[in-house]
Amino acid sequence: MMEGGSPIDASHGPGPMTRMCLMPAEQWEIRDTWHTMGLRGTGSHHVALTDVLVPDENFFEFPFGTSFAPDPIFAKFLEHMMLAHAAVPVGIAEGAIMDLVKVAGSGVKQLFMTTPLVETERFKEGVARLDADLKAARALLEAEAARVWQNPERSTVKDISRVAEQRQAAVWITAACVRVAEGCFELAGSRAVYETSPLQRRVRDLRVAAQHVAVHPRHYVAAGTAMLARMS
Questions:
Q1: What distance in Å separates the CA atoms of residue 115 and residue 88, rounded to the nearest whole number?
Q2: CATH number at residue 51
Q3: Which end of the chain has fewer CB atoms < 10 Å from its terminal CB, N or C?
Q4: 23: domain range?
């Protein structure tokens, strides 16, 4: 948010005030800017409102502030929005493991190997480790989502730890899923490098997902601050 050409300070801490709004779709201009290496199908283009008055009740501060609707589901919107950015990587990583198993199950053999890939100890150990990483990521996602719903109170400007912990979980989950996809890519061997391979697309999609501001590693700072305050 700007005033007189300068950013307005956020009420909940350092940094500029960032607000979100809801408006009817016909008032938005979609700008064709989403030409990326991954997640190409999301259509995450820029949008713009030009000479449109947004009512105060359609605004809310991010990641804190009064919700735009009194309904309990919308009251939890901001906290769950953090976790939503982690749910997508979990799904992509799960798809990567499924793609890997399908490739190995076709009976392929790596160069200079007489044993099918799926029967080698390296493959079995590798896919088990990747599956364990995925299970850990999914378990953290489900645990954090359950914790949000079990707390009936809304997040407030005085309780930064609640959103900080969602960010912490989302950052870790996304990074873990990137490792899973890249591990699948490596285990699949040279077949994964071709454009026809779904594994190279899984890696590209997760790398783009990991670049999102919601899952940037710098959010560990806020989570660490909240943890130290809780334990002191």
A1: 35
A2: 2.40.110.10
A3: C
A4: 2-62
Q: Which long-range contacts (CB under 8 A, 24 or more apart) does 39-45 make?
A: 39/204, 39/205, 39/208, 39/209
Residues 104 and 196 in one domain: yes
Give the model confidence (pLDDT) of 69-121 as tens digits.
566 666 666 667 788 899 999 999 999 999 999 998 888 887 777 788 888 99
Entry pTM: 0.85
**Sign of the Cα pseudo-torsion (110, 114, 117, 120, in order):** negative
Q: Give the span between the Cα atoms of 64 and 62, in whole angstroms.
A: 5
Token pair for residue 70?
A: 């009194």
Check: CB of residue 164 under 8 Å from CB of residue 225. yes
Domain total in the chain:
2
In residues, how long is the chain? 232
Distance between CA 126 and CA 103 in Å, rounded?
14
Task: Fill in the amino acid letter for 31.
Answer: R
